[in-house]
Amino acid sequence: MGGYEETGVLSLDDLLNIPSEKQLEKGVAISECIQNIPCNPCVDACSVDAISMKDINSPPVVDYDRCTACGNCVAVCPGLALFIVKIKEDKAWITLPYEFLPIPEKNDTVDALDREGNIVGEGKIIRVRKQNSTWIITVEVDRSLAMIVRNIRCRR
Amino acid sequence: MHLRIREHPIIDFSGREKISFYFNGEKIVGYKGDSIASAIHASGVKRLSESLKGRHRGFFCGIGKCSSCLMTVNGIPNIRTCIAPLQEDINVETQSKSVPWPKVDYDAWEDGLNIEVDILVVGAGPAGLSASIEAAKQGATVLLVDENPRVGGQLIKQTHKFFGSKHEKAGIRGVDIAKDLEREARDHSNIKILLESTVFGVYEDPSYNGFTFGVMKRENYKSRLVKVHCKEVIISVGAMENMLLFPGNDLPGVYGAGGVQTLMNVYGVKPGNKVLMVGAGNVGLIVSYQLLQAGVDVDRVVEAAPIIGGYHVHAAKLRRFGVPIYTSHSIKEVYGNDCVEGAFVVELDENWQPIEGSEENVECDTVCLAVGLTPSTRLLEQLHVEMADIPEAGGRVAIHDEYMETSVRGVYVSGDSSGIEEASTAMIEGKISGISAALALGYNRDAEELRKEYIERLEKLRAGPFGEKPRIAKRKILEEWRRYHGRL
Ligand SMILES: Cc1cc2nc3c(=O)[nH]c(=O)nc-3n(C[C@H](O)[C@H](O)[C@H](O)COP(=O)(O)OP(=O)(O)OC[C@H]3O[C@@H](n4cnc5c(N)ncnc54)[C@H](O)[C@@H]3O)c2cc1C
Ligand code: SF4
Ligand code: SF4
Questions:
Q1: Rounded Cα–Cα distance for residues B407 and B411 (Å)
Q2: Which residue of B10, B40, B130, B264 has the smallest Cβ count within 10 Å?
Q3: CB distance from A119 to chain B under 8 Å?
Q4: Which CATH topology does B109-239+375-487 take?
Q5: Structural class in CATH, domain B254-373
Q6: Does the Cβ of A62 fall within 6 Å of ligand 2?
Q7: CB contact under 8 A, A38 and B325
Q8: pLDDT tens for residues B28-44?
Q9: Min CA distance, B7 vs chain A (Å)?
Q10: Does the complex come out with an ipTM higher than 0.90?
Q11: Cβ-defined contact of B317 to A79 (cutoff 8 Å)
Q12: Domain B18-98 has CATH 3.10.20.440
């Protein structure tokens, strides 16, 4: 398999920086936007200046110590490339933008999908909200899937 | 077979009023807001017309630029049904290759109308809207003309959030940007908007010291001639979708990507149930994702180049739903009796040649072509503007300076018709052309400073690797411009 430019799938090595365990326990935004594209609304969306960019064509860099995991950037990102990951004991909470029907409800059990759409486990919906006309879903999965699960599929 | 989208995660298609009409004598029900072609397509009819050789023609571009949807409506032939609004009780008939003289009293040239303005803006996409607003802010009177029934150009079908910076409304969905721009334009009393109207030609009128344009205004499927006198004109007519050569490319069920987007996101109609997407540039990736949102299965995306051309973030959105992207693959042929029943795809070697034995059969009812756009330039050619062939701009374009003025004084271009790019840059180019046209007429409210700021913003947006193509295109255009002026 080739790199992401051939497959459309990132590997962890492609990410610019990976948060530490401690930062993950606090909960942080993870950017999967790694190319030089002309875009910067995530920078403007962050009220604590945790996202920086050299110029509008550079990829965003998240300052994990500053990030409060508020999710504002997740709701605004046109690339749907920002996720919040928070580790809670043996579970991981993943907050992702979701633009499909049906919209899951709290406590629903869903399929947890990886970056290629494969089912890699089961998820429980923790929170559902709408911001900037985008559904923002928080799903709980096994801790080992924290950096793997990036999508869900409703079973209803 | 019914192809209506029942529910959609982004657009609310519910609660639309039903409209019944006759198609080849049979009663069909559509919805208010449908075009004639979208209502017919929704009922499962894919054959809209036929070629001179009698081959079937289906929905292709959806924006009135190709001619696969010509039909006879209420006895009036050659109506472009993809942009003709559906009305109660109309009589729609497919037509054969030779069209008889209209059966009705056909007042094509009925009582002409004259309009005189400072600036005529042709095309109400992001470029034309921004140009009109900016020129109006300076104080000029503007006539904004578009041949579609709605304002917004390509934006009205773009349900995804936009890239760019906050100045170009990044993070907002294209459909909402269109509404914002329309509201802003309508707030200016010095902008007059004429819809369902095609600017078709430029004429000599010795009685007027300026430009004279012919505009065809459509109403109830009849046309009326409008004569427009203006001192300056901004051409922002967008682009046409490219075709690809392969056997079966004219079968109903082969669509342009923009056409598919129009069907789904403007009219709430699915193109089919299973799609093969050709092209992994941003358009192919975005439209594939929007097909999934509409509940349509995307079998795969094939891309002839060895790498994905669009932004990774768009590719990732598709992959997360399990849609494969095959790079170094292309379409070989499409088969089917009356419409698409499947296609053969083939792998390409490093010289882009098909690898023997690599053919794969893909069963699908829809093939969607996202293989680039070509600038629309017919009006510019009529205006005798200097043109140049610039592949990076998408073909033949008008040469222009950094203020968007062409070689003919008073004629400006902006947006895709000045070189294929994006909505964000189309908006800024539009602003620059609007300000420049107003300035040339003596309207000046800090115009020069504003224009300088816009030019800087444009350069910043184009500075990255994905801006390389437009950067080269615009550099070549400027070089051609200098060469042309050196010759004078
Ligand atoms: C599928 C798809 C996805 C895209 N995604 C993005 C994106 O994410 N971000 C981004 O920045 N850009 C995107 N773009 C590109 C963007 O939509 C275009 O670059 C932009 O719309 C160009 O604007 P424009 O005003 O030049 O032309 P258009 O939007 O095409 O508007 C031209 C208008 O002119 C009218 N017209 C044409 N001829 C005549 C005539 N003779 N008389 C009267 N009216 C006429 C047409 O009806 C049309 O309304 C996308 C494009 C497509 C097709
Ligand atoms: S989650 Fe909130 S704090 Fe963290 S980067 Fe995004 S906007 Fe900033
Ligand atoms: S908003 Fe999203 S796509 Fe745009 S730069 Fe930020 S992370 Fe990338």
A1: 8
A2: B10
A3: no
A4: FAD/NAD(P)-binding domain (3.50.50)
A5: alpha beta
A6: yes
A7: no
A8: 999 999 999 999 999 99
A9: 8
A10: yes
A11: yes
A12: yes
